[in-house]
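A favour, since you know our structure tokens better than I do. What I am after is a single protein written out in full by you. Could you add the entry underneath, on a fresh line?


***
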Amino acid sequence: MSAVDEARPKRGAPKRGTPRSERAILDAAYGLLTQEGLEATTVEAIAARAGVSKVTIYKWWPNRAAVITSAFLSRSEDTLPYPERMTRDEIGAALLRMADSFRGTTGAVIRALIAEAQVDPGVAQAFRDGYLNARREHGRQIIRTAIAAGVIRQADPDVILDLLYAPLYFRLMVGHQPLTDEAVRAHVELALDGLLTE
């Protein structure tokens, strides 16, 4: 990667501005998302709530979708963690924390973003690039390390991530069954019986 590539802002990421204004914008966007819904979270509404101009927002983010995704990411990074080691206990604990987040505000926002992504290509791209793809690369690195150490079986890291995480997203989005801790524990046991080399 060249120095130019490294300096170029990632799609969906804000350009650096005044920290206080940036925080106010992200807080305003997240507040609107959780209180009024995605449709009401317009650039105009965000600017009014944050006490800034629309021009200020567009200086730091290319579009509404990028602001919304950045606001979501600013609140979700700590609540949707990957395990640092691929052990039964750490994977189980991480997925239980994720399920707990999905049962609250984070889950409601993810549902709204995924639904909006079906009709708004900008939201779809910002959500994939800013949230899914960025997080999955971290997950792939953890899985490659575990495979190299002989902890889990040799397999495509993307398939392993889907195996572990897709059932939680499925219950979140489809709602055919509740996303309970009991369901998560049962899923972890079945999945890891096939993955772990122990």
Residues 15-72 form a domain with the Arc Repressor Mutant, subunit A fold (CATH 1.10.10.60). The CA atoms of residues 69 and 120 lie 13 Å apart. Residues 1-16 have pLDDT under 50 and may be disordered. The first helix runs from residue 3 to 7.
